[in-house]
């Protein structure tokens, strides 16, 4: 259904372009000054759950500097709205929207605020969606993309592309991501796209939608690197991708995070308006939860390679901001533990690192090699670097009842050999490092919400203003406009917001950027500039949805302009066109030729013969010929028409009424005289037409009851009369 509206818009654009030449408008209205300014780009990178201890260890393991080291510039406070230790969902929300939120909440305001220094949120605003920087960038015409090594529906990438009350709701997150209109989406999480999967109880085949939307859908590193599409959706695993060490060891077909980052930058940077890219190294956090130092090192180093790619581009580009942060600490990892209490000054780096170097796989990767009967237990332990096992160690491992217990025994053993400490298997509340590069980068100790604000400021996004535009409360806003509203849950897995007034019905399905509009017998699908969010209480929609007409077509004709409805309607039908694709010039004047062309098109008139006028040529000739043959117009002399002369209001009335007589097949006569204050100024030949035009309410006087017969008609006035003429 969305195809229909696309065609309409495309058709209109072609008509608009043609009209510029055929109607002889010279006004190539100045395009935004943005064209002369370098576009701004932002590459926002998050290494999930990475404490400073993990980066220190990864640097020693690598044996040289990290790419991140050279851009270390400050620190970040990570607490959530209600707790000292945050979950990834509110942390991601803070980084993407500039608002602290609550545990598990993605892209919505919090319902509970009790952290010191966090401003309270009004009860009615709880769980109200707030715009993220990716959405803001997209509104500015920038290309956008997200990357993760987890499933792409996971909390942090979700915070940059979706709005849901609970992070585990992959069904809604995946659907919103598909309708978000991003250019590049790379990661795991293919399952949540597939019809028949657990996530898709709503019966949506998102893979089909991805294909319909023109993405190049790729599933291997090879196909990703080969793609030359501007829109790429890569789903390289059913859920998460492998840890980088395991990926390399298995010579897997999955891309590395650096591969994905490089490809995304190549693709997005083709956009003249610049781009916003979000990248997450997701699994440092998972390894930290498991207290597996190998998984942490593996994915800190892989993430750092991706930062290297981003920096390489940013240095060359000069107008790209790169941010790399952790969203929170995890595991309390330290070099040194209880065994080093008294002797740390004597312990060299190698004592920590050498035991770790023996591992070829992460704990997860090694355990995947385990036979069901655990018969190869010592071999698996060896893959994790646990060689020369003592009898006691073998007994400990053998005592593990399941894979989970065994993993726990293995990681404890390796930590002990490498003298590493862990304080928890959960997140931690300390500040994390801030890495940033490029113009306007944030520095010093900042709050996680400040990072969203820095990115928005650099790109020129007013997040608050955009939230007001993209997420209005549907019930409240439609009811203010006299609609009756309801939430249709006939299909419980696909709630739809419905607004009705007269013979207009607007349906807004959740998670999509679509409005299905029925206007009497006419039905069309309107594409909105944002997704519709249902937070299980209220629907929030793009303000565009409040307008039952096709979307605003001209920058200089806003929805509150008096002639908006007329211009929109006629432009949508291809009858009227702008002076350029983006501008209508409503106050500009109209020539005789142009007005007749509008009438001819409105009546769908065709010319049979050529015209006697010597001053008419080009694209207008057929329209004028058709109107002339139909008796709607005559020339200004036997051989001239003066098509480029500006049309006055009284001339317009005459042409309009003659056209109306032609259309209805009836000759009209004026009734009683209308007492315009300036009636003496109306030329006698036009008097009756002006009067009929008033009676039919095609043309009326101004506030002072003047008709202004000799004034030139404006393009907006012409649109109004043609609209009314077309309707009658
Ligand atoms: Zn996290």
From TrEMBL:
One of its GO terms (molecular function) is metal ion binding. Mg(2+) binds at residues 48, 154, 156, 280. Binds 1 Mg(2+) ion. Binds 2 Zn(2+) ions. Residues 550-613, 621-670, 673-728 form the SLH domain. The keyword Transit peptide does not apply. Keywords: Magnesium, Metal-binding, Phosphoprotein, Signal, Zinc. CDD domains: ALP. It holds the Pfam family SLH. This is Alkaline phosphatase.
């Amino acid at each position: 259904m969305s195809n229909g509206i696309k065609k309409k818009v495309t058709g209109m654009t072609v008509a608009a372009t043609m009209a510029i030449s055929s109607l002889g408008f010279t006004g190539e209205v100045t395009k935004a000054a943005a064209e002369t300014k370098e576009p701004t780009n932002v590459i926002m990178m998050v290494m999930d759950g990475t404490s400073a201890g993990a980066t220190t260890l990864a640097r020693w393991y690598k044996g040289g500097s990290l790419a991140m080291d050279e851009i270390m510039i400050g620190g970040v406070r990570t607490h959530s709205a209600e707790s000292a230790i945050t979950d990834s969902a509110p942390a991601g929300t803070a980084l993407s929207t500039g608002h602290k939120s609550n545990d598990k909440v993605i892209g919505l305001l919090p319902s509970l605020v009790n952290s010191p220094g966090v401003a309270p949120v009004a009860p009615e605003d709880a769980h109200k969606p707030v715009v993220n920087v990716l959405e803001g960038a997209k509104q500015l015409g920038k290309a956008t993309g997200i990357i993760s090594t987890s499933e792409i529906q996971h909390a942090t990438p979700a915070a940059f592309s979706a709005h849901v009350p609970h992070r585990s709701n992959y069904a809604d997150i995946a659907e919103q991501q598909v309708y978000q209109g991003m250019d590049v989406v790379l990661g795991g999480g293919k399952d949540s796209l597939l019809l028949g999967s657990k996530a898709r109880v709503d019966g949506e085949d998102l893979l089909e939608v991805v294909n319909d939307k023109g993405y190049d859908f790729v599933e291997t590193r090879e196909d990703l690197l080969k793609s030359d599409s501007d829109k790429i959706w890569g789903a390289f695993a059913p859920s998460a991708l492998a840890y980088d060490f395991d990926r390399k060891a298995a010579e897997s077909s999955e891309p590395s995070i650096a591969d994905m980052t490089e490809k995304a930058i190549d693709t997005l940077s083709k956009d003249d308006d610049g781009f916003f890219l979000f990248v997450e190294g997701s699994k440092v956090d998972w390894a930290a939860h498991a207290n597996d130092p190998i998984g942490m090192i593996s994915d800190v180093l892989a993430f750092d390679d991706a930062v290297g790619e981003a920096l390489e581009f940013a240095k060359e580009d000069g107008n790209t901001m790169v941010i790399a942060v952790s969203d929170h600490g995890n595991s309390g990892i330290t070099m040194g533990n209880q065994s080093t209490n008294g002797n740390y000054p004597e312990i060299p780096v190698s004592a920590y690192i050498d035991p770790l170097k023996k591992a070829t796989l992460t704990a997860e990767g090694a355990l995947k090699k385990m036979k069901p009967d655990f018969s190869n237990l010592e071999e698996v332990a060896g893959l994790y670097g646990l060689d020369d096992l003592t009898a006691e160690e073998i007994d400990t491992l053998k005592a593990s009842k399941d894979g989970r217990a065994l993993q726990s025994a293995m990681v404890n053993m390796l930590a002990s050999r490498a003298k590493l400490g862990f304080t928890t298997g959960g997140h931690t509340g300390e500040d994390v490092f801030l890495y940033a590069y490029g113009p306007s980068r944030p520095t010093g100790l900042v709050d996680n919400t400040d990072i969203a604000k820095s990115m928005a400021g650099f790109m020129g996004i007013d997040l608050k203003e955009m939230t007001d535009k993209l997420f209005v409360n549907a019930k409240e806003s439609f009811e203010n406009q006299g609609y009756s509203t309801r939430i249709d849950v006939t299909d419980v897995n696909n709630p739809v917001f419905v607004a009705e007034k007269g013979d207009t019905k607007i349906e807004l399905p959740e998670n999509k950027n679509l409005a299905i509009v029925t206007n009497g017998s006419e039905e069309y699908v309107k594409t909105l500039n944002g997704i519709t969010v249902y937070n299980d209480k209220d629907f929030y929609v793009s303000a565009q949805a409040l307008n039952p007409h096709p979307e605003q077509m001209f920058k200089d004709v806003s929805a509150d302009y008096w002639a908006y409805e007329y211009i929109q309607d006629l432009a949508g039908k291809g009858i009227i066109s702008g002076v350029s694709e983006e501008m209508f010039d409503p106050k500009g004047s109209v020539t005789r030729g142009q007005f007749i062309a509008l009438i001819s098109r409105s009546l769908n008139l065709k010319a049979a013969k050529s015209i006697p006028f010597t001053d008419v040529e080009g694209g207008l000739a057929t329209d004028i010929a058709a109107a002339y043959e139909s008796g709607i117009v005559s020339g200004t002399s036997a051989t001239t028409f003066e098509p480029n002369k500006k049309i006055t209001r009284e001339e317009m009335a005459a042409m309009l009424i003659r056209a109306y007589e032609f259309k209805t097949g009836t000759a009209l006569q004026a009734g009683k005289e209308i007492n315009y204050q300036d009636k003496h100024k109306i030329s006698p030949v036009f008097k009756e037409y002006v009067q009929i035009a008033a009676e039919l309410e095609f043309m009326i006087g101004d506030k002072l009851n003047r008709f202004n017969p000799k004034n030139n008609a404006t393009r907006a006035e012409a649109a109004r009369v043609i609209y009314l003429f077309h309707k009658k």
